[in-house]
Amino acid sequence: MSWEDEEFDYYQEEEEINEALNRYEQMLKNGYKMYFDVVQIEYITERFIDEGRFVPALQAVDLGLEMHPTSIALKTRKANILFNLGEVEQVLRISNQLLKIEQTNHELYLLKGSALLLLGHKRDADTAFQLALENSLDDTEEVLFNIGFAYEQNGNYKHAIHYMQKVFELNPENEGALYELAFSYEKLDNNDKSLEYYNRYLDIDAYSDSAWFNMGIIFTKSNRIEESIEAYEFALAVNEDFPNAWFNLGHSNMILGKYEDAIQSFFKYTEYDDSNDEVFCLIGECFLKSGNIDKAFDHFQIAITFNKTNAQAYFGVGLCLKLKNELHQSMKYLQKALNYNENNSDYWYLMAEVSSSLNYHDLSDDSYREACNLSPENLNNWLGYAQMLYQKGRVIRAISVLNEAQEHHKNNALINYRLAAYLLESDNESKAIKHLEKALKNDYSNYNYLFETYPDAKFSESVNKLISKYNPINS
Predict the structure, then answer these.
(1) Are 209 and 238 contacting, i.e. CB atoms less than 8 angstroms apart?
(2) What whole-number distance in Å separates Cα of residue 349 and Cα of residue 318?
(3) Is the pTM of this model over 0.90?
(4) CB of 117 within 8 A of CB of 150?
(5) Residue-wise pLDDT tens digits, 138-193
(6) What is the distance between the alpha carbons of residues 163 and 274, in angstroms, rounded to a whole number?
(7) pLDDT value of position 10
(8) d(CA 238, CA 443)
(9) Which of 9, 81, 144, 434 maximizes the CB count within 10 A of its CB?
(10) How far apart are CA 295 and CA 316, in angstroms?
């Protein structure tokens, strides 16, 4: 058949579909029944299914079954629609009934297997799928694809890959199989394989915005941020109206510190969703990191107008106010942030700094302690806590905090330099020298950290002698 004949058949079929739909809609509008043959009902339901309108599709197929109660095709179509509506047990019942009549109908075995899979009967599903393959005749490629897709939808990505690979072996140009292989490998965190299949897919269809977008996600997960930006930009070159690509592009630029580019991308996203509090928080963060505190403040406030429970937005406002030295106001916003999320160590740390500056000693102490308890792996929490205590003259308590920090950061040079400084301040030179030696062994290059913390250490003969001993020049 020539392409002209194919085109004629296509337009003829479209005309028939549109005529059937128009008659169907007229019938619904006028409230009286009209006759439709099986093919016309199939046309109508197919259009509804393509548009994702499964309830109208079910109504149409039920009308068709009133007129053609013995039609296997319409009963099979009904089972398909019910499957998409989540009525899995009905699908299984209909499939079993129809298979008594048509024991070689591979589509019914596919439906039965998919229903069994969702009901948790994997072994029975495997049997049904095998029967679908045995009866597939010339449709083996499509059946394999549908089995793989059923497993993918069920979260069984290894089985999905098994069947999609078989599709690929039959037809290396099958775009659907390539895409689903890439997707399934991504779900299994096999980023290299996923990228391999997305690249193969793009070799066939370079204008797939979703494939470029998914590659961007994988590059981001693999910390290949520059490449993720390129992928998102390709997705947007294909389809400029792709909100999530604008969002992810902004996020990748943000990771690289390209804050102006990130802000532009996030603003582009707001053209599609202008009330997303998360994106306004990110814009605020970008402005903050760019040094524009006022604009950062404004955008964190916008986020709050859209979501009164957004802890990150309250924290952002509190941070801006701290930087503007409006400490009492800062505390109010930080308290709100903690009201909505009391498990964020960053919130407690900033509260500790602000309350310390306001000489609210107990609150500062408690806040630093919360920060350390929530994120003991964050060395800055411990060093900040100890520094606050040291500055308030509570040197012994500061030493105790650093000793506790060592339980989580064994042999850390900065802790040992800081302990050496505090112990020298406390006239405990022998212990100080022990900690200084540990620090010098691990990280000689930062020995000035000792003098920055306790300048008088430079007058200690023992200190200077030990530093000289570990100086690489003298070794």
Answers:
(1) yes
(2) 12
(3) no
(4) yes
(5) 889 999 999 999 999 999 999 999 999 999 999 999 999 999 999 999 999 999 99
(6) 42
(7) 42
(8) 51
(9) 144
(10) 11
Q: What angle do CA 443, 446, 451 make, to 5 degrees?
A: 130
Supply angle C-alpha 294, 289, 328, rounded to 5.
Answer: 50
CA angle 311, 316, 318 (to 5 degrees): 95
Helices (H) and strands (E) in the chain, counts: 27, 0
Least Cα distance to 456 among 415, 420, 430, 431 occurs for: 420
CA angle 161, 187, 250 (to 5 degrees): 135
- Calpha distance 402→423 (Å, rounded): 11
Task: Look up residue 333 and give its amino acid.
Answer: Y
The rounded distance, in Å, linking the Cα atoms of 229 and 452 is 41
In the Cβ-directed half-sphere of 257, how many Cα atoms lie within 13 Å?
A: 1
Distance, CA of 350 to CA of 380 (rounded, Å): 12
CA 124 to chain centre: 34
Query: What is the residue-wise DSSP string for 340-378?
Result: H-TT-HHHHHHHHHHHHHTT-HHHHHHHHHHHHHH-TT-
The tokens describing 64, both together, are 């068709």
Domain residue extents for the chain: 411-475
366-to-327, 356, 391 alpha-carbon distances in Å: 18, 11, 16
Whole-angstrom Cα distance, residue 272 to residue 285?
Answer: 20
End-to-end CA distance of the chain: 87
Whole-angstrom distance, CA of residue 228 vs CA of residue 248: 9
Residue 179 backbone zone (phi > 0: left; psi -120 to 50: alpha; other: beta): alpha
Distance between alpha carbon 70 and the CA centroid of its chain, in Å?
48
